[in-house]
Amino acid sequence: MAKSGKLAFWRMETLAVTTLGYALYYLIRKNLSIAMPLLGEIGVSKIQLGAFLTAGGIVYGAGRFLNGIVADRNSARGVMAAGLFACAALNVAFAFSDSIAGIAGVPLAWAMGMAWVLNQYFQGMGVGPCIKTLPKWFAPEELSTKQSIWNLSHSIGAGAVFALCGWFLIPVFHSWRLCFIVPAAISALGAVAILFLFKNDPSEVPGLECARQAGAAPQTGARDAAYGAYIARHVFANPRIWTIAIGDFFVYTVRFAALDWGIVLLTESKGLSLAAATALVFAFEIAGGNLGMIFAGWATDRFFGGRAHRTSAIAMAGAAGAIAAFHFVPATAPALLKLLPFMAIGFFIYAPQALLGVATTQQATPRAAGVAGGFVGIFSYASTILSGIGLGAIAARWGWNGAVAVMFAAALAGGIVLLTIWNAGARADPADR
């Protein structure tokens, strides 16, 4: 195999391994929502389940940041595999949490909650290794397309666990435990595969030692004395990273509002049945979201020279327009007229959801990508304060018109924030790299 062909093969192998590897994280992250109805049968209340989700979201945001530091200073392969092993073990612990609670003499909700919150912390070990590794294999002018493909891992993992548990394990066995044990076993096997298949950079493949991508900084060791100063300069003192983080707060506000409140919003304000509303939310993420990510990645590389923040700003304006169009569709309109604008919201909002990760790597440099991604992630998941309890309070006080107005304002605000860095390049300034 010629060297160019060998490099092309390992690039695609790396993209496949990182995509499927992160999908396995979702396989043991989104299973709780499917098992919730059965957990009520063993005495876990909706308030307790809500507390699991809230605490888990906060811990996940912190875990992404802290584990981003770990990923930047260690082998991405080792961090990703270790995190997946830990999450698999904690899923098994969750499955047997009633037995653990009896042995430890603690309430069932405490045992379950601790297992789930710890799982969310180690879930934060999945993103950093991927966003650190991809820039070492793909040049800046193609990174947006490739990272958008990687971002499909979210839907692959979520869709797989919904199918596995929702269409097989629960209907056939009526067992909430299997929703945690079986995905955990699959993910543990995947962690073993990552140890053998994941390559940190081209230098780990014989014959590609000199094929490291231009612009990808050498991997730093844990003993790099200048590491702290480098991170402080390129992340915490970098105004572009702060701008991206604030923009991502608004991106995730709209995304979580549509996902978490979508079914209630559609049934109560648009007169849809539960089945029809579920289909619209599915179309929002799977059809609209995936198409939006792929198209936005291609458009970024094709028309904006890899400047992911520019595509993201335009997409936020598109999301605001789609939200407005959805709002003005009457409840008496055919279901298709409700589907199209709601799916369009997903098409536009998933573009910056994918591309702001690229923009973060571009502006922080690949060397600081893990920490920068974790820092931005704190803002992303802080959005649940507004999209969760905040939107619920607004809907209760002013109805769904008020909630949709907040979504529209968030999309508009996100676009305006990102416009302030429109002139930023596709990479950090040469002096900063």
Describe this structure in words.
- The chain is mostly helical.
- The chain has 2 domains: 8-201, Growth Hormone, Chain: A; 228-422, Growth Hormone, Chain: A, CATH 1.20.1250.
- It is 79% helix and 0% strand.
- It has 17 helices and no strands.
- The chain has helices at residues 3-27, 31-39, 46-73, 76-95, 97-104, 108-123, 127-137, 140-150, 153-173, 178-197, 227-236, 239-269, 274-303, 308-327, 335-364, 369-382, 384-419.
- α1 (3-27) runs antiparallel to α10, α8 packs across α15 and α15 packs antiparallel against α16.
- The two termini are 33 Å apart.
- The relative contact order is 0.14.
- The model is unreliable at 213-223 (pLDDT under 50).
The helix tally amounts to 17
CATH topology description of the largest domain: Growth Hormone, Chain: A
CATH superfamily of the largest domain: MFS general substrate transporter like domains
CATH class of the largest domain: Mainly Alpha
Strand content: under 5%
Annotated CATH architecture of the largest domain: Up-down Bundle
Name the helix and strand elements from N-terminus to C-terminus, one letter apiece: HHHHHHHHHHHHHHHHH
Taking the alpha carbons of the first and last residues, their distance comes to 33 Å
Total DSSP E strands: 0
Identify the overall geometry: globular
Domain unit count: 2
Helicity level, as a percent range?
over 70%
Give the arrangement of secondary structure elements.
Elements: H1 3-27, H2 31-39, H3 46-73, H4 76-95, H5 97-104, H6 108-123, H7 127-137, H8 140-150, H9 153-173, H10 178-197, H11 227-236, H12 239-269, H13 274-303, H14 308-327, H15 335-364, H16 369-382, H17 384-419
Helix pairs in contact: 1-7, 1-8, 1-9, 1-10, 3-6, 3-7, 3-16, 4-6, 4-7, 4-10, 5-6, 7-16, 8-13, 8-15, 12-13, 12-15, 12-16, 12-17, 13-14, 13-15, 14-15, 14-17, 15-16
